[in-house]
Design goal:
four-stranded parallel beta sheet, globular, alpha/beta, Ribosomal Protein L13p, Chain: A, 6 strands
Length: 139
């Protein structure tokens, strides 16, 4: 008989990922799997089974090809002519937290469940983070 996980039965761990010299896309897919809980045997699609993820050294990640100069992110406020664009390099220097959240959010469900999952992602520019008491394992 298939056992489905209940929200109160789930144990959540804290995972620290060091982004230094890792490829951005591969790191983001690993984060998405951890946030969804697909690495656990008790995975249930309609329950938040995932762990908390802390990413350190966010600005020292690697990109392949010419993505730093060529890839652009667009924002639009809804008003005419208000489209703005930033290159990947500008996003990485100014707000790497936003860059990571945008990339991971695209791999999570577009529902209330996905919005709960993305809140368990913590991104920090440097090696220090305030979650040392909760951290149980590093990768």
């Amino acid at each position: 008989m298939t056992k489905t996980a209940k929200a109160n039965e789930i144990t959540r761990n804290w995972v620290v990922l060091d982004a230094k010299d890792k490829t951005f896309g591969r790191l983001i897919t690993e984060v998405a799997v951890l946030l969804r809980g697909k690495h656990k045997p008790c995975y249930t699609p309609n329950v938040d089974c995932g762990d908390f993820v802390v990413i350190v050294n966010a600005t020292q990640v690697k990109f392949s090809g010419m993505k730093l100069e060529d890839k652009e992110y667009f924002t639009h406020s809804g008003y005419f002519g208000s489209t703005k664009s930033k290159t990947l390099k500008e996003m990485l220097e100014k707000s790497p937290e936003k860059l990571y959240h945008l990339a991971v959010r695209g791999m999570l469900p577009k529902t209330k469940l996905g919005r709960v999952m993305i809140k368990k992602l913590k991104v920090y520019r440097g090696a220090e983070h305030p979650h040392t008491a909760q951290v149980s394992k590093s990768k």
